[in-house]
Design goal:
The strands form three sheets. Strands 1-9-8-5-4-2-3 form a seven-stranded mixed beta sheet, with helices on both faces. Strands 6-7 form a two-stranded antiparallel ribbon. A two-stranded parallel ribbon has the order 10-11. The chain has 13 helices and eleven strands. It is an alpha/beta fold. The protein has two domains: 192 residues, Alpha/Beta hydrolase fold, catalytic domain (Rossmann fold), CATH 3.40.50.1820; 127 residues, no CATH class. It is elongated. α1 packs across α5, α2 packs across α3 and α8 runs antiparallel to α9.
């Protein structure tokens, strides 16, 4: 078993998020850049939480000669929205934590492999909204992590967490995912379990979906009961006796096979409910971006934007509470559903989790 050194505090909110989170900032380490480790991390997290706004600023400490205090001044000038989450790697985590002590105690900070002091910056007080994950065996910061249990509301000393964050990308993503889900305190000591999370299984599905297929389609042939190729044929399939779920599922499989802009060219049938038509417009826009296809002009028509929020689910799966419970049970549930919804949906006032678009 992996050894961890754990320090618990009586604060019941320790390790739990403050929702909603308006923005997520990813801060690189000393000598790093926004296009390095934090870019790789964003690529993973953005697939898990496509509705979140991720920001990767270039920090002054990209220049190793720049003192850490210069980065704090930069952060103070950024007008970071209240209650935002900052995940910082190495020095990025330290300056984010120090920012809390400079009048921004509203912020939530996750520090990964960060020291408690560097250059001209030293942490001095504990923050309940500060989480730290590090290793006292990390040769880069070993002499500067001993006070994390006193300074962070939630911390773990993992002996396996080396300073090479790229090598631990899966586990860093789990920290982020479980924090947003509100389950980090319960599962953190299982973070190296070999079993995959739902997000990681979805990653595999998205990769498989993106693979090219040698598929041929006679677009001049009329629809004769085959899988629908576009939204108009979804309507024909439903008029021939298929229910919505069957017609939609067949179209989705056909689209993933073809990945052709013509699959998105036709507007949804008029007889569908306005929420479902708005959802299909968001699907077309999302897939066009995801696979580099032409976005159809019709998706910008006013009729595909809802005046009120529409909560949509494709399938009623009794084993998936997020598919059964379309209407959120509370504000936190609502935030999480929105955070899992592509922005192409959200701008139409449609809440629909991206994993509903996955097929094998």
């Amino acid at each position: 078993m992996t050894n961890t050194r754990t320090v618990q505090f009586p604060d019941k909110a320790s390790g739990l998020p403050i929702l909603p989170i308006p923005s997520v900032y990813l801060l690189h380490g000393k000598g790093g850049s926004p296009e390095g480790t934090v870019r790789k991390l964003q690529d993973v997290l953005e697939q898990h939480w496509p509705g979140l706004d991720f920001i990767r600023p270039l920090m002054p400490h990209h220049d190793p000669a720049s003192p850490a205090s210069a980065s704090i001044e930069t952060l103070l000038c950024m007008n970071i929205p209240k209650n935002s989450l900052i995940l910082g790697v190495s020095l990025g985590g330290l300056v984010a934590a120090k920012l809390q002590e400079c009048g921004r105690d509203d912020l939530q900070v996750i520090a990964i492999s960060s020291p408690t002091w560097a250059d001209d910056v030293m942490l001095e007080s504990r923050s309940a909204r500060r989480l730290a994950f590090y290793s006292s065996a990390d040769s880069v910061i070993a002499s500067r992590v001993g006070k994390w249990p006193e300074l962070a509301g939630f911390s773990r000393d993992f002996d396996w967490l080396t300073h090479d964050t790229d090598a631990h990308m899966k586990h860093v993503a789990r920290v982020f995912d479980w924090y947003l889900q509100g389950i980090l305190p319960r599962l953190v000591d299982q973070i190296r379990n070999e079993s995959s999370t739902q997000q990681e299984r979805d990653e595999i599905v998205w990769r498989v979906m993106a693979e090219p297929h040698d598929s041929r389609c006679d677009w001049n042939a009329k629809w004769r009961g085959r899988r629908p190729r576009d939204y108009a044929e979804i309507g024909l399939a439903m008029q021939s006796g298929q229910d919505w779920y069957q017609a939609w599922g067949n179209w989705l499989h056909e689209f993933v096979l073809l990945k052709d802009s013509r699959c998105l060219a036709a507007e949804p049938p008029d007889f569908l409910h306005e929420e479902r038509r708005a959802m299909l417009a968001g699907v077309a826009e999302f897939f066009a971006r995801l696979y580099g296809l032409s976005k159809p002009d019709w998706v910008e028509k006013p009729e595909y934007f809802l005046s009120g929020t529409g909560y949509c689910a494709i399938m009623e799966d009794p084993d998936d509470i997020d598919a059964v419970v379309m209407i959120p049970i509370n504000d936190d549930h609502d935030f999480r559903k929105r955070a899992k919804t592509p922005k192409e949906m959200l701008r139409r006032n449609v809440v629909f989790e991206a994993r509903g678009l996955t097929v094998l």
